[in-house]
Amino acid sequence: MQASLTPVSREYAAARNMLRANAAVWTPAFWTSLAHARAAQRRGAMQKLRELAPLVALVGSESPRVVVEIGTAGGGTFYAWCRAAAPDATIVSIDLPGGPFGGADGPADVTTLSRYGRPAQALHFLRADSHDQETRARLDEILGGRGVDFLMIDGDHSYDGVKRDFEMYKPLVASGKPIAFHDIVPHPQAPGCEVDRFWNEIKDGRPYLEFVDRDAPDQYGGIGVVYADGDRRSRDRRRRRRSIASP
Ligand SMILES: C[S@@+](CC[C@H](N)C(=O)[O-])C[C@H]1O[C@@H](n2cnc3c(N)ncnc32)[C@H](O)[C@@H]1O
Description:
Blueprint: H1 7-21, H2 28-42, H3 49-62, E1 66-70, H4 76-84, E2 90-94, H5 110-114, E3 122-126, H6 133-143, E4 150-153, H7 159-169, E5 178-182, H8 195-202, E6 208-212, E7 223-227, H9 234-240, E8 242-245
Parallel strand pairs: 1-2, 1-4, 2-3, 4-5, 6-8
Antiparallel strand pairs: 5-7, 6-7
Helix pairs in contact: 1-3, 2-3, 2-4, 3-4
The structure holds S-adenosylmethionine (SAM).
């Protein structure tokens, strides 16, 4: 039962999910991913460890050079992307100050977030509505034609909001690269959170991964990953299509 899960057993379960995402337990990267996910939680990540840790492992295994996050809030996940990305990566945070689904603490200030980057990383902070074409144009300018290697969508959780983020930003993601969504399971305590509805529409017919902590007492969260179209590795990934959930 969830109530009897100790910190050790939770960590064990996180590692087990990570193994399913990235069977590389013998590499130091596996264990640092777990540490990064924990550090992200300490910095306010609105995520469950057993869901975030495998995603950090997945992202770390690809060492992305261009990362875009929609929805940064306190900066917990932003910290994780700074750790998981390439040492010279470009990392862009898009967040609407005072926007919906932000939690009680509000967004972290840019000075704090800037400290999360590594010395050769280029960090950009667009404090704007992701749905605004002007925001997309500013991102285009930052990217200068480079494809996005990892896109995290965790901003407006309404059906129309998450759909619009996907439609506006997916074309920027390089072929075969991951696009992650948070809150893919129903969230009865958050009226208006409808990522699950959108997720269930788009995951069919594509390779996808789900990291879902089904043991948690409160129902929310879940991370889903799809890959940008045209992936030459799609066939392999289709074979891997599955739901990764704690037992
Ligand atoms: C759930 S929080 C992000 C949590 C963060 N990814 C983490 O786990 O550390 C959602 C964030 O999205 C932002 N947001 C909501 N609607 C947005 C929009 N249209 N454009 C940009 N940001 C938005 C909110 O202000 C909030 O900071």
